[in-house]
Amino acid sequence: MYKLKPVVPVPMLIENTCRMYKLKDLQQMSFSGVPMSDKSDELEDINDETQLSDQEIQVLLEKQNEVLKILEQLELRLSKLDVKFPNAKDIVPISEKQQSTQCNVNKEHKSNSKSVINNDIKNLIKNDTVVFADPEDPPYSLLALPILWPAVAWDISYHVHSSVLKDLEALGTIKAFKNVNCKHSNNIVKVFVIWQHIKPSPKVVRSPTDLSIGEVSLLRTFNQCLATQPLAVADQIKSNKVLDLINEIVDSTNDRTAELHNLIMESNTKLDITNIVIWSLLYKKSEHPSKIEKWLSHFTKIIIV
């Protein structure tokens, strides 16, 4: 708005000859396939927004195809939830002998096939997982962790906050949650569960900057690091869509139990994170259709011993 008189005269153009480093000439790289004699004229044409020649268009299309191929590869990797993209040589198989001596989990639920644990398990071992759970909305999926991943050495302990000690109803609810102790491995995944009246529940804390909420996020956190056999891309996308829908239903202020019922296939009794989350959410409710009750009973007999 106002033009002030300069206190110290400064030249309008300052020539800086001291550079820390020199960036690549992107325009020069883009038109490396164009003859040198025509480059300056062609760049001027581009700046003037004139029509590009066939040769220039071909060069740009080749660059575009290269970028698209890189984006497709990144999308494929992200769809597999393989954030750190480990090399195949870094994946370490766990022998059946180690699996049989790791945890005091019911043996009939253990997988007989050899499994490969993602190297991201080192992050779980290095940093403990703390789960703040509300006894009025208990995350029953915690009971399924040793069943979903029997090859892992689990150490799950439950602690009651002082605000819950006098709540007899809450204490009666959390009796179903028993500690899981592993003493036959140096690589133990430790989970500390703190019963506390907290909304929303559960709250999963991995570090001061790593916090997530809900049972979907809880199981996704472990599945990302402990997935034994990655699903096919199409199956993984389908599973993620179902988990996202479940998360949306849980966060809704309306009663959307019927939508959870619609996600259940009576013949699908596979122990995976999708079915476990649905089971945990419906187990806390009552008055389900007979087909749903039969489906819930199947998982209840396996998980709640």
From TrEMBL:
Gene Ontology biological process terms, A to Z: translation
One cellular component (GO) term of this entry: cytoplasm
Protein name: ACYPI008104 protein
Subcellular location: Cytoplasm
UniProt xrefs under PANTHER family: AMINOACYL TRNA SYNTHASE COMPLEX-INTERACTING MULTIFUNCTIONAL PROTEIN (PTHR13438), AMINOACYL TRNA SYNTHASE COMPLEX-INTERACTING MULTIFUNCTIONAL PROTEIN 2 (PTHR13438:SF2)
Domain (AIMP2 thioredoxin-like): residue spans on this chain: 127-209
InterPro entries: AIMP2 (IPR042360), AIMP2_thioredoxin (IPR041503)
Record's keyword terms, sorted: Cytoplasm, Protein biosynthesis
